[in-house]
Amino acid sequence: MEDRPIPPPPPVEVELTQLADEGYVILPEVLTATELRELREALEPLEQGRPMGRNNFEGERTHRVYSLVAKGEVFARLAEHPRVVALLDRVLLPNYLLSTLQSIRLHPGETEQPWHSDDLFYPIPRPRPILAVSTIWALEDFTDENGATQLIPGSHRWGTEHPDDRSRSVVGAVMPAGSVVVFDGALWHRGGANRSTGTRLCISPQYCQPWLRPQESQLLIAPPEVAAGLSERMRSMVGYNIHPPFVGQVEGKHPLRLIDPSYGSQSRTRKTTAAEIADHVLARPGS
Ligand SMILES: O=C(O)CCC(=O)C(=O)O
Predict the structure, then answer these.
(1) How far is the CA of 42 from the centre of ligand 1 (A)?
(2) Cα angle 64-213-40, degrees, rounded to a multiple of 5
(3) Are 167 and 114 in contact (CB under 8 A)?
(4) DSSP string, 24-46
(5) Could you tell me the residue ranges of all domains in the chain?
(6) 166 CA → ligand 1 middle, Å
(7) Which atom of ligand 1 is nearest to the CA of 147?
(8) 154, 224, 230, 287: which sits with the fewest CB atoms below 10 Å from its CB?
(9) How far, in Å, is the centroid of ligand 1 from the Cα of 271?
(10) Which run of H or of E encompasses 201?
(11) Ligand 1 pocket mutation, candidates 57, 113, 171, 208, criterion most atoms within 8 A of CB
């Protein structure tokens, strides 16, 4: 398939309104054919020989590859795609974190996943202010038959109810390969059943507020020598940053000093607001 021009996106305000009202928004056909091919090719060797999931949540007919941020630049780039970042920058606090970056390939015969929300492990009563945002990038067409993610519009505002115990409508995230669904971490959803003869492949980057513990221990996945090869934004997203004034510090210093010896000599205009606040509050190097 040839790359064709990507049409201009709708104003980000329109997407933000749908995200706030419905709890999700689909951004159709964001990736080019070349980007899709690169992602699929990078993933294929990582899936070889992997066992299927260990339970019906991971999916007993599903291959997952976790911790993708350190497994290829192409994955890290996807997790900081500008169309998604434009939304994250508006709904999460500065210095939000990458919570997990994983692929999910449903094979034929996979059954529906249990209903869940992706922020369910944070013990804060619902309804609650936004804690996390999930995204699911379709690397193959998502159809009702092959297990498109099922979403319950508006359920990000629910209290403690479970979808099995109340009336609700369900929408399938039916979308062509290259599209992404972005949703509030509190939205009830599940992977669908794959009743087709092919697979349904996605990559799911998920993000959380900068004061929460991410699902994956990103600082172990991307220790300083790995983080040095990541973009500035991605370093921040894996935790080389602070939530002001000092959550995330190391030895009383900004964690970027671990991977960037010149950090202290950078012009102040290049620093984020958070880094500036940190430098006011935290001890100076060597002190
Ligand atoms: O595969 C899907 O469509 C959804 C997966 C999911 O929600 C999860 O594993 O948390």
Answers:
(1) 21
(2) 25
(3) no
(4) EEEE-S-S-HHHHHHHHHHHHHH
(5) 12-218, 242-287
(6) 22
(7) 3
(8) 287
(9) 36
(10) strand 200-208
(11) 113
Please state which of the ranges 163-177, 192-206, 266-280 shows the lowest mean pLDDT.
266-280
> What's the whole-number average pLDDT of the chain?
92
- The pLDDT assigned to 283 comes to 47
In this prediction, residue 274 carries a pLDDT of 60
Name the CATH superfamily housing domain 12-218: q2cbj1_9rhob like domain (2.60.120.620)
**pLDDT bucket at 281, cuts 50 / 70 / 90:** low
Secondary structure of 95-122 as H, E, C letters: CCEEEEEEEEEECCCCCCCCCECCCCCC
Tell me the helices (H) and strands (E) count for the chain, helix number first: 8, 9
Q: To the nearest 5 percent, what fractions of the chain are helix, strand and coil?
A: 30, 20, 50
Instruction: Report CA(137)–ligand 1 centroid distance (Å).
Output: 11
